[in-house]
Structure formats: C-alpha cells, structure tokens
Amino acid sequence: MTSVLDPASSAAPAASPADTVAALRATFERGVTRPLAWRRSQLERMVAMLEEHEDEWLAALAADLGKPRMEGYVADIAFVTGEIRLMLKNLRKWNRTERVRTPLVNRPGSSRRIPEPLGTVLVIAPWNYPVQLLLVPAAGAVAAGNTVVMKPSEVTAATSDLFVRLAPAYLDQDAIRVVPGGVPETTALLEQRFNHVFFTGSTAVGRVVMAAAAKHLTPVTLELGGKSPVIVDRSANLKVAAQRIAWGKWLNAGQTCVAPDYVLVDRAVEQQLIDELRRTVASFYGSDPKTSADYGRIVSSRHFDRLVALMRDGTPVVGGESDAQSRYIAPTVLTGVDPGSRIMSEEIFGPLLPVFGIDGIDEAVATIRSRPHPLALYVFAEDGRVVDDVLARTTAGGVTVNGTVLHLTNPHLPLGGVGDSGMGYYHGKESVRVFQHLKPVLRRGTRLDPPIVYPPYSERKMKLLRKAL
Ligand code: NAD
Questions:
Q1: Domains of the chain by range and CATH?
Q2: Is the pLDDT at 10 greater than 60, yes or no?
Q3: Among 1, 223, 319, 330, which residue has the least CB neighbours within 10 Å?
C-alpha cells in the first residue's frame, strides 16, 4: 500500500542512517512484515544464522571477551535460540486479537484489542553479551511485525563484524539491517525518527538515548545497569551461597548486568562466607585462575585500567592479581572498603566483589534503600521470614532468592529495571509485547441507538445514567 505523499518506496541498501531508516520504513509501509509467514521465516533464519555458524560466534566471543565456549554457548547462543523458539511456538497466539468485555453502556457492541506492530524500531546493544542483547530484542521486534535496525557494540569488534557479515546472508535486508559503529554512528541513528528505541547499556548513556528519543516523542525501553546487592543472612546455607554468588559474579569475568555487585553479610557468618568463597574460586578455576580455560578476560584496556584503580579501594582477601597485557583480573574479594569510596559509587562491572559485615537485616535493608533501585537483588536465607521481610521493604528490577542471575532465564519472569536501572521489560511474551501497540477497538451495533447520552439532557436521563455507569 503506497501513499500519494510517499515518494520513496524503494528498499535498496543504503549507507546513510536517514536512507536506511527510509528504506526500512518503506518496507513496513508495503506491508511486507505483516504476514506471520514472513515473521516465522525471519525468526527461523535468525536461529539458523546462530546454529550454522556456532563455532564462528564462539570464536568471536572468545576473541572479544576471552569468553569460555560454554559461557558463550549458554548465554549467547542457546539462550537466544530458546527465546526465538518460544516466539515461534507462540507466534500466532501472541499476535492474536483479544476479545474483551463490553460494559452495559457500550452495548450493543463488541470490544477487541488488536496487536499492531509499531513500525521501524532501533535496537542498541552493549558488549557484555553482544549476541544475546542484540538478537533477543530484534527477534521480538520481528515477531511483532516491525522492521528493525540492529546496532551492535563497537567494543566487541569481532562479534560486530560477524553480524555485519552474516546478517545480510540470512535476513531480509529490506526489513532488518545491521548498522555497526560507536558513538558518532549511534548519535546519527538517534537523530532519525523511530517508532521505538530499545536500548541496553549504561545508565549514563540511557539518559542520552532517552533525550534523543524525546525529540521525536519516540517511546523507549531502557535496560540499564546499577549496583546489584547480595544479602547473606546468618541462616543461609553458606556453602551453596558462596558457590552461587561466585558463579554469578565471575561468569564473564564479572561483566554481567545482573552480576552481584557487593555483598552484605551478617557479621556472625562473614568470615565463613569469605572462606567458602576462597574455596569455591579454587574449585572453579584452580589455584591459578589465569590458566583456567573457564575464566574470561576484561573487554578492553580502558575497562581494565578502571577496574585496577577500583581495586585500590579495598583489601583483597581472595585474588587481587592482574595482568595488563592479557587484560586478566583475578576473581577478587575485597574487604575494608569505605562505603563512600569510588568502587561503591559506580557499577563495578568486573570481577571485584566488596564484602561488608552487617549487624542484621535492618542494616542491609537501610543500605539498599539509601541507594538507587538496583537491577537485581539477591538474598540468601533459610529463614523464610527474612526473605519475606527483605522483599517487602526493598525494590529491585528482579530478584533471585538463594541464587544469583537465574531469574532472567525464566521467560515467565520478564527482565527490566526500575528507576535508575531502567524502564520497561522483555523476555518471553514481553519481548514481543514491547514492540506492539494494542489497538483498542469498540465496534457498536446500529440496531438500537438509545438517546440517553444525547442532548437535550434532562434529570430523567441523568437518573438513568447514574444507574448505568
Ligand atoms: P554503554 O552504555 O557504554 O553502550 C551501550 C551502547 O550504546 C553501545 O552500542 C554503544 O555504542 C552506544 N553508546 C555509547 N555511548 C553512546 C553515546 N554517547 N550516544 C549514543 N550511543 C552510545 O554500555 P556498555 O559499556 O556497552 O555496557 C555496559 C552497561 O550495560 C552496564 O551498565 C550494564 O549493567 C548494562 N547492561 C544492562 C543490561 C540489562 O539487561 N539491563 C544488560 C547488559 C548490560
């Protein structure tokens, strides 16, 4: 369907952001992305792009982040194909018109909510899970029938290059484009009018994205970061707590948005927890984690330098070693950290774990409440009243009790922040929903047309309305 006012309906590949967006918008306007069959084929091709080139993806992740094959497979391949397969399974259901009740005053009539794609959307991804965080939102946008620009992070250059190389071979270039680049390229993209911007990254850049989107009144989803605390109660199973904290913290060398940022542990069990963490590090990565194939590297020299500087804010009681050349920083536990120091004022986003002794749950709750709402919160306790108390008195994007990170792997628990850690959420059905407009439609019958709401108004009509409304 073309409008007489629309000169450009060609979708030829184009270089400038304006041309790219115009081409994708023209594709959308032609209705190409509306049939579920098109969406299904694109989602299937996304899966094929990952599975047929699995070794290349894992090699790119290893080159960028020293990502162990298992971590790359689980988080950047299997997680994405799992989300997309769920979309494929539910494609019809999640795009189905929903009938809803019609109140008496609207009768005779019927009411529906019709899910519509938004149009042309922009997905901007960070570098820590560079495949997952670009493809899951992009797949959701496609499943909802949008055209989409995917902007991978420039920091993970090998992964970004692979997207640039493989996407044109697998995906409909008239509808799904990869635009690589850093700040200037993203800034230029953000000058364009999109129908939604889905951004994953830091809180600081989230503000930039939202300000740019506001110029076009474009809605945004902001998946941001923050300092995710761990509370360890004196009733906790300390061995299990240490293992689960260690796994969530040192996965991807601490470069995970929902990684435990710092630990608040009851003083009665503080030393025991630290000893368990030390034992766990040795059991996960051996006596020298630098030689372990299962431990990643810091993404860039800039981040390495930042983390080495942050390490000086505490005393390492586990780890503490680093090597600039290989961008290695050992799994490190810090004590003696001043709560006012730099390491406690910014998201650590690396393998440093400050541990603070506390005098009970009230102190933990007060500490968390005095800071911006975190993206995730973890509480370890065998005493259910402690868990309920923490849940009742704190706010966070998401919570795992007696564990870390895993709440985001359940597609029925959408991922998103609150306050400084973000706005909006996705995963599972919400990955599609976020890219839809649920158009409300009231369809009225014409057999009856009671004049009750029409002028001239009267006391009698008012009386009837009082009963009906
Ligand atoms: P970042 O904010 O620096 O970059 C994210 C994206 O924004 C990149 O594609 C980058 O090219 C672009 N960008 C950077 N500066 C920009 C600017 N001035 N204008 C426009 N675009 C710009 O984040 P990062 O360092 O890639 O990722 C780390 C952050 O992401 C951490 O804060 C982490 O917690 C957060 N994160 C959040 C989630 C989540 O799901 N909530 C997931 C992963 C990472």
A1: 17-224+420-439 (3.40.605.10), 229-411 (3.40.309.10)
A2: no
A3: 1
* Closest of 374, 300, 333, 309 to residue 63, by C-alpha: 300
b/e for 372-382, b at 16 or more Cβ within 10 A? ebbbbbbbbbe
Determine the Cα angle at 71 with ends 70 and 77, to 5°. Answer: 90
Average pLDDT value for residue range 45-58: 98
Closest ligand 1 atom to residue 151 Cα is: 9
- For a mutational test of ligand 1's pocket, the pick from 122, 128, 155, 306, i.e. the residue with the most ligand atoms closer than 8 A to its C-beta, is 128
pLDDT tens digit sequence for 31-41: 999 999 999 99
Mutate to test the pocket of ligand 1, among 156, 205, 224 (most ligand atoms within 8 A of CB): 205
pLDDT of residue 451: 87
Catalytic residue among 71, 83, 257, 276: 257
Tell whether the torsion through CA atoms of 404, 413, 77 and 162 is positive or negative: negative
Which amino acid type is present at position 269? Answer: V
The pLDDT value given to residue 222:
98
For residues 124 and 444, give the distance between their C-alpha atoms in angstroms, rounded to a whole number.
42
Helix (H, G, I), strand (E, B) or coil at 402: coil
Known active-site residue 257: yes
Strands 332-335 vs 315-318: parallel, antiparallel or unpaired: antiparallel
DSSP, res 78:
I
DSSP 7-53: --------SSHHHHHHHHHHHHHTTTT-SHHHHHHHHHHHHHHHHTT
- List, chain by chain if needed, residues with CB within 6 Å of any ligand 1 atom: 124-128, 133, 151, 153-155, 182-183, 186-187, 200-202, 205, 208, 223-225, 257, 347, 349, 375, 415, 417, 422
DSSP 455: S
Q: How far apart are the C-alpha atoms of 173 and 161, rounded to whole Å?
A: 16
pLDDT confidence bin for 148, thresholds 50/70/90? very high
Give the least confident one: 285-294, 299-308, 329-338, 451-460.
Answer: 451-460
DSSP code at position 164: H
Q: What is the percent of the chain where pLDDT is above 90?
A: 93
- Cβ-based neighbour number of residue 191 at 10 Å: 12
Question: Has this prediction a pTM greater than 0.70?
Answer: yes
Token pair in block for residue 97: 């018109």
The three-point CA angle 255-343-290 to 5° equals 45
What is the reported pLDDT for 124?
98
